[in-house]
Amino acid sequence: MQEALNFIDSPAVLRHAQINAVSGERFGVVSAQGHRYWLKTAMGCLLHPAVGDTVLITLAGEDGYILSVLERTQQQPSQLRVEGDVHLSLPSGALSIKTRDGLSADTGPMLALRADHAVAHFTEAQVGVKALSVTGERSDHYWNERNDSAIRHCEKAVRHTANYSQSRREVKGHEELTSGSLRQRVDKDWSLRGETLDLFAEVTVAVRGERIKLG
């Protein structure tokens, strides 16, 4: 193995090199002159090097760094790596991301998004959560068809209004209604059918009509 030259007390130099080995966070490189070095990547080298890459290196004294990846000869996924916290700031303009085969994000313990206005368009969407809490001042939903399925369903409202063209409700088990007062108005026919019908009133039971038929 040809040993690397000693660059102590010499100005920094730039060279092209090729990566031929990886050991932890250090990379073995061979310069165009055939010199071999073990170097680590500089903070500004966002594209993580791989074996076979042609890279730009800098050498100063006993230190050296890989500045950037110049060319990748083998077809393989690229990896951008930055140590520590990262803050991306755009004082003006917008950030646009466009991908051909999709976008995947693994944010670990938390994902936080903040915006004055948000718009999302999907052909199909599937969301799975263990617990979901949604709060706001107003919520509007518009669907051609909606199906809800729940083992237990509970609704609470100060005022509830529902308007239907047609409505049908089927309760296979027991249904119980408790109300402070109840009033039903039917414009046409109203029928009640059951095996047993019990009507209890503490004060008065009144039945009024032009014709009343019992039995």
Automatic annotation (TrEMBL):
Name recorded for this polypeptide: DUF3540 domain-containing protein
One Pfam family this sequence matches: DUF3540
InterPro entries listed in its UniProt record: DUF3540
Organism of derivation: Pseudomonas syringae
